[in-house]
Amino acid sequence: MIQKKRLELILEELKSRGTLSLKEIVTLTGSSRDTARRDIVKLAQNNAIDRTYGGISLPNTFSRLDEYLERTEDLSAEKDILAKTASNLVKDNSHIFLDISTTVSCIPRHIRPYENIVATTNSLDIADQLLRNTKCKTKILGGTI
Prior knowledge:
Blueprint: H1 3-17, E1 19-21, H2 22-29, H3 33-45, E2 50-52, E3 55-57, H4 62-71, H5 76-87, E4 95-98, E5 118-121, H6 124-133, E6 137-140
Parallel strand pairs: 4-5, 5-6
Antiparallel strand pairs: 1-3, 2-3
Helix pairs in contact: 2-3
């Protein structure tokens, strides 16, 4: 297979999966490890991919963050109503878990000012909202950014 076809195949697969290992590229293209490495170098030189330990990923992962930020404005009135309703379920001495969501990010604005609520989240944005808008003890789950 010529390099142009291999690169197109790699990019097409990468778009659907987000990341690929060197081994997966070898299997996908039927090429040697050295050829796969040269293909990775070529794609990286053209800023088509980001090199990672043992493989490649899509460049500019901040585009997902941009999409999230754009969605925060969609249906904001409806999200606020849902958030207000959900916050009414939070009672004193509760432990709540708030996942990443543009709707869930509205909940901290409506939580009553109880003293004994523990809130755990995996979202920096929601953790910030909890700290600014509530008296909750706030915990954030670790991970990779």
